[in-house]
């Protein structure tokens, strides 16, 4: 693997493992992230995993790009479990009516029925590649080929919080209302990002996610429980 070290201003070093969305590249990114977090070289402030690279932020008054690259380079040869501490989440989703405004169109474009689209989506265990775009917004893959579609030609100005979306090879959950150009096939009542939680973002890179179908009545019930902070999303340590 050809690894590149790239500067990102005077406070970050990017360790780039490739140029595509790929599980093997993600494992390499998460492995280095775990190694650095377990015993960070002097001066490191934060690490941020992406699809194909690891951004390493540092204090320029304590270290510099050259020293940091020399400290990180030997770590690339170490073995570590890239998903140590990762969790498997079971996310409740309503794929019906107003919660799934693009489901019929996705079915038409893919040649599937709406029920088949839902079956493929809930039958896939997704890998959280990274968080980005909005706080707690998880980019998850890999979407089965039969559901792979380009983004919408007409992005929405307002996508509701909790929307389950698909585009290209990925699926995602909108943590807040925002503009967006992905296809909306369902919605979850859970809160993806909560500043009052010890860990505000629900998911972390390396986690796995399964979607569990619910009806509108269950959606409303879970949402009420979420609002009163009496609902916990089901999760368990990820079996390796």
How is this fold's topology laid out?
Elements: E1 4-7, E2 12-16, H1 23-38, E3 44-49, E4 53-58, H2 65-72, E5 87-94, H3 103-110, H4 114-122, E6 126-131, E7 138-141, E8 156-159, E9 163-167, E10 170-173, E11 178-180, E12 183-187, E13 208-214, H5 216-227, E14 234-237
Parallel strand pairs: 5-13
Antiparallel strand pairs: 1-2, 2-4, 3-4, 5-14, 6-7, 6-13, 7-10, 8-11, 9-10, 9-12
Account of the 3D structure:
- This protein is an alpha+beta fold and 240 residues long.
- It has helices spanning 23-38, 65-72, 103-110, 114-122, 216-227; strands spanning 4-7, 12-16, 44-49, 53-58, 87-94, 126-131, 138-141, 156-159, 163-167, 170-173, 178-180, 183-187, 208-214, 234-237.
- An eight-stranded mixed β-sheet has the order 12-9-10-7-6-13-5-14. A four-stranded antiparallel β-sheet has the order 1-2-4-3, covered by helices on one side.
- A hairpin with a 6-residue loop joins strand 6 (126-131) and strand 7 (138-141).
- It is globular, with a radius of gyration of 19 Å.
- The relative contact order is 0.16.
């Amino acid at each position: 693997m050809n690894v590149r070290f790239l500067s990102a201003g005077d406070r970050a070093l990017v360790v780039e493992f490739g140029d595509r969305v790929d599980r093997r590249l993600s494992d390499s990114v998460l492995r280095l992230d775990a190694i650095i977090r377990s015993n960070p070289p002097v001066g490191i402030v934060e690490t941020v995993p992406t699809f194909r690279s690891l951004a390493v932020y540092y204090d320029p008054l304590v270290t510099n790009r050259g020293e940091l690259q020399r400290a990180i380079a030997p770590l690339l040869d170490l073995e570590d479990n890239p998903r140590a501490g990762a969790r498997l989440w079971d996310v409740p989703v309503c794929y019906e009516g107003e919660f799934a405004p693009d489901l019929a169109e996705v079915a038409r474009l893919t040649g599937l029925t709406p029920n088949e689209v839902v079956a493929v989506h809930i039958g896939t265990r997704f890998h959280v590649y990274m968080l980005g775009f909005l706080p707690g917004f998880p980019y998850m893959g890999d979407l089965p080929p039969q559901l792979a579609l380009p983004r919408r030609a007409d992005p929405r100005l307002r996508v509701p919080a909790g929307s389950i979306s698909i585009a290209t090879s990925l699926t995602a959950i909108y943590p807040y209302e925002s503009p967006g150009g992905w296809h909306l096939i369902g919605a979850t009542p859970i809160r993806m990002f909560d500043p009052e939680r010890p860990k505000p973002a629900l998911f972390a890179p390396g986690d796995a996610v399964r979607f569990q179908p619910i009806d509108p009545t269950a959606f409303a019930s879970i949402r009420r429980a979420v609002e009163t902070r009496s609902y916990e999303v089901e999760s368990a340590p990820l079996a390796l």
